[in-house]
Amino acid sequence: MEPRKPVTILMADDDEDDRQFARSALEESRLANDFRCVEDGEELLDYLYRRGRHTNPKDSPRPGLILLDLNMPRKDGREALKEIKSDPSLRHIPVVVLTTSKTEEDILRSYNLGANCFITKPVTFEGLVDVVRVLDQHWFQLVELPRVRNGDEP
Question: At residue 74, what are phi and psi to the nearest 5 degrees?
Fold first, then answer.
């Protein structure tokens, strides 16, 4: 079995506390992945398309997994998800919706827009650590993801 290479995880969430909790949960879980954050859907797309302050591939490596909040300013997660999954150069990137919403409408719409899974944010840090461990086991140990070369598309 080949050793796993670190995968860039990109989190799009406007809540600074949630971003920091996720970073801490990754550290607590001892995951060797590169963790990057953006604050809204507009910045998420700038990152993915390497626009604005995200033009340098070394500073904005292609993510192997996107954690996406639905309720963000400027461009919300639903709009960003729709754009990502409609672009052939991005649609292969798994998108995990990680949000406070529990509504059936948000769950159904997220899957209809191409989300790979939908997780309601846990209310405790320990719960978030558990979610991160499950994500690691599923996305980085069990599932075969497309290889990313030189920070670009597969």
Answer: 60, -80
Core vs surface per residue 45-81: b (16+ CB within 10 A) or e: bbbbebeeebeeeeebbbbbbbbbbbebeebbbbbbb
Q: What is the reported pTM?
A: 0.87
Vertex 101: Cα angle to 97 and 102 (nearest 5)? 105
Report CA-CA distances (Å) from 128 to 5, 27, 119: 23, 12, 11
Tokens of 21: 């909790």
Closest C-alpha to 80, from 153, 17, 10, 154: 10
83-115 pLDDT, tens digit per residue, is 999 999 999 999 999 988 889 999 999 999 999
Domains and CATH numbers, the chain: 8-142 (3.40.50.2300)
